[in-house]
Specification:
single chain; mainly alpha; three-stranded parallel beta sheet; two-stranded antiparallel sheet; 8 helices
Length: 232
């Protein structure tokens, strides 16, 4: 994670439960898949406890599987329709204009932050101009045409069963104590982290009998350097 654009970086291999369907979809790069992948990789290290220290975590979110051949054919037909092509052309034409709007908004924001002695604001770059526009609340005149389904959700109970089986295979069946999985989440002071995101994170750590802590902004980061309030 964090080295996706580095061609020398290699994704590790997962070894446990290779024949399970959930195992097979984990390498596909959706948010939920990535979190599940890293969770399994950590669990496979035969450890006493796991701590994810990160700037993004929403629990498992939703795992997705890739399309089968029938679904691929349906997708290709959908994006070949004249209305879709026309709307996409208008949208592509607007993209550089949206980027200019983003740049102007960021210049304004960072000028205000600099005057207050604050560091520049950093935007999420996962989906480029789309992530940036969404984060800044900028609206498209010609939005992207609705995406036909390109991947399909895996039911939550199947994901839960997979990780219960994984824990059994790695620890319970070998008479080893099951590690807790904990999350320390660093957020900007004004970063959106709504009640639904917190619920998903709470559910994730509860599943693994762990805890989470959300640390916001420079002041909380400095305050968290002390361990005097830590309870084990």
């Amino acid at each position: 994670m964090g080295l996706e654009q580095n061609p020398a970086a290699k994704k590790p291999k997962l070894t446990a439960l290779p024949d399970e369907e959930v195992h097979k979809i984990l390498p596909h790069g959706h948010r939920g898949n990535e979190t599940a992948f890293m969770t399994q990789y950590a669990l496979e290290q035969n450890v006493d406890a796991i701590f994810f220290i990160t700037g993004y975590h929403r629990g498992f979110e939703t795992l997705r599987r890739p399309m089968n051949e029938r679904e691929k054919a349906e997708y290709e037909r959908a994006i070949a329709k004249p209305d879709y092509i026309k709307q996409m052309a208008k949208h592509q034409e607007e993209k550089p204009k949206m980027q200019a709007r983003i740049n102007a908004e960021m210049e304004k924001i960072n000028a205000e932050r600099k005057a207050k002695g604050q560091p520049p604001r950093v935007l999420e770059q996962r989906h480029g101009v789309y992530s940036n526009a969404h984060e800044l609340g900028l609206k498209w005149t010609n939005p992207h045409p609705p995406h036909p389904p390109r991947s399909f959700e895996v039911k939550d109970h199947l994901v839960s069963k997979y990780f219960r089986d994984l824990v059994d295979t790695l620890y319970e069946d070998n008479d080893k104590p099951v590690p807790s999985v904990n999350v320390v989440l660093f957020l900007a002071g004004d970063e959106v982290f709504d009640a639904n995101a917190k619920t998903l994170l709470d559910k994730y750590v509860r599943f693994f009998r762990g805890k989470n802590r959300v640390i916001r902004g420079e002041n909380e980061i400095k305050g968290a350097r002390s361990s005097k309030e830590t309870q084990n």
